[in-house]
């Protein structure tokens, strides 16, 4: 397929989540994009921790696990798989150590959220450590999955068949996601409480899947934007296809 075979439309979008309608996909390709967003797009994550002092109530291993789950901003073009960045924290109680207290040797790589709690420190307790964050992919470890929620479903087209009969009840008809209306508009079902009977009162409607059209619901952990995640996933698929093409041609 060429780029002209695809039509992409953002139905909803903010910095960390979006609904994206893509037309011109096969089910296998749609699933490939989903898998690539989960497993192939690399993110930085804390991998090794060197504790200088930990007098909190939590063991080193428990804090290490928490640190590995703190999302870090990931400018993929600036680094390669396996690259490391050094981070550090030094907090003394009373108070809570947060992700925002972590200092970084590389300004481009820092906690995506400042308010992730690490541990509560009492009077006289202290947490000090150095850590190495490594760039890797979700296929190596789940903590590197920048796409925390990625799913898709067929776009569904609604057709008005006519008016309900005189004695027919206008019963609720629940439909969730994104639909294409009889006028060709793309509408999120949340707008009418997911009930087609509210959108088309007194009408008999039918619903069918639109061939080759899929709506992706994507949410990131803040490592990068939704658009970056989607583009990186597609680049990954294209890269593997080119590699296979080269090997077959040999």
From TrEMBL:
<keyword id="KW-0808">Transferase</keyword>
<keyword id="KW-0240">DNA-directed RNA polymerase</keyword>
<dbReference type="InterPro" id="IPR011262">
    <property type="entry name" value="DNA-dir_RNA_pol_insert"/>
</dbReference>
<dbReference type="InterPro" id="IPR050518">
    <property type="entry name" value="Rpo3/RPB3_RNA_Pol_subunit"/>
</dbReference>
<dbReference type="InterPro" id="IPR001514">
    <property type="entry name" value="DNA-dir_RNA_pol_30-40kDasu_CS"/>
</dbReference>
<dbReference type="GO" id="GO:0005737">
    <property type="term" value="C:cytoplasm"/>
</dbReference>
<comment type="similarity">
    <text>Belongs to the archaeal Rpo3/eukaryotic RPB3 RNA polymerase subunit family.</text>
</comment>
<dbReference type="GO" id="GO:0046983">
    <property type="term" value="F:protein dimerization activity"/>
</dbReference>
<comment type="subunit">
    <text>Part of the RNA polymerase complex.</text>
</comment>
<dbReference type="InterPro" id="IPR022842">
    <property type="entry name" value="RNAP_Rpo3/Rpb3/RPAC1"/>
</dbReference>
<dbReference type="Pfam" id="PF01193">
    <property type="entry name" value="RNA_pol_L"/>
</dbReference>
<feature type="domain" description="DNA-directed RNA polymerase RpoA/D/Rpb3-type">
    <location>
        <begin position="17"/>
        <end position="247"/>
    </location>
</feature>
<dbReference type="InterPro" id="IPR036603">
    <property type="entry name" value="RBP11-like"/>
</dbReference>
<keyword id="KW-0804">Transcription</keyword>
<dbReference type="GO" id="GO:0003899">
    <property type="term" value="F:DNA-directed RNA polymerase activity"/>
</dbReference>
<dbReference type="Pfam" id="PF01000">
    <property type="entry name" value="RNA_pol_A_bac"/>
</dbReference>
<keyword id="KW-0963">Cytoplasm</keyword>
<dbReference type="GO" id="GO:0006351">
    <property type="term" value="P:DNA-templated transcription"/>
</dbReference>
<dbReference type="GO" id="GO:0003677">
    <property type="term" value="F:DNA binding"/>
</dbReference>
<protein>
    <recommendedName>
        <fullName>DNA-directed RNA polymerase subunit Rpo3</fullName>
        <ecNumber>2.7.7.6</ecNumber>
    </recommendedName>
</protein>
<dbReference type="InterPro" id="IPR036643">
    <property type="entry name" value="RNApol_insert_sf"/>
</dbReference>
<comment type="function">
    <text>DNA-dependent RNA polymerase (RNAP) catalyzes the transcription of DNA into RNA using the four ribonucleoside triphosphates as substrates.</text>
</comment>
<dbReference type="InterPro" id="IPR011263">
    <property type="entry name" value="DNA-dir_RNA_pol_RpoA/D/Rpb3"/>
</dbReference>
<dbReference type="GO" id="GO:0000428">
    <property type="term" value="C:DNA-directed RNA polymerase complex"/>
</dbReference>
<keyword id="KW-0548">Nucleotidyltransferase</keyword>
